[in-house]
Amino acid sequence: MRIERPSRTGGIIKLAASVLVCLAVGYIGSLATTPSIPTWYANLAKPAFNPPNAVFGPVWTLLFILMGISAYVVWAKGLAHRGVKTGLVLFIVQLALNLLWSVIFFALHQPLWAFCEIVLLWVAILLTIISFIRVSRFAGWLMIPYILWVSFASVLNFSVYLLNR
Q: Which residue in 25, 121, 149, 152 is deepest, having the highest Cβ count within 10 Å?
């Protein structure tokens, strides 16, 4: 029995879908975020290491693209490949938690609850990285900038909470 490799077109479609899903989550998160930036967020006390608002959009866009490529690399191994389904489920969980953070912090104006949630997000990202590395080291490494940024965002989130209790 001959096993056929996926077509190049199929690979491009999977890559595009992976990246577009991640970017769509980022866009939906921005719908919860954007209205609060000039109002509620602008009036919060922030730590000295808070980046300018203009930094967040490009950084998140790049991270969502890297996440999408990472998910594609794992998905391209095939759902029958050991660890792929687990990795992709963890990926979807962390993506949902990513979106939820924007809602909790920006739409609901709850920095403490957002901090609790971002800790769960960080754990989910770590589990995703571990799972992805078992399938593809490259896919796991593509997620490292994301967990580093979320680590920074966690400290920033907690600092905002402390400064605005």
A: 121
pTM of the model: 0.93
Segment 131-161, tens digit of pLDDT: 999 999 999 999 999 999 999 999 999 999 9
Residue for token pair 């990472």: 70
| Residue 123 covered by a domain | yes
CATH classification at residue 75: 1.20.1260.100
State how many domains the chain has. 1
Backbone angles phi and psi of 53, in degrees to 5: -55, -35
Range of the domain at 58: 8-163
pLDDT band of residue 8 (cuts 50, 70, 90) is confident
1 assigned to some structural domain: no
In angstroms, the Cα distances linking 153 to 6, 10, 84, 124, 149 are: 38, 36, 28, 15, 6
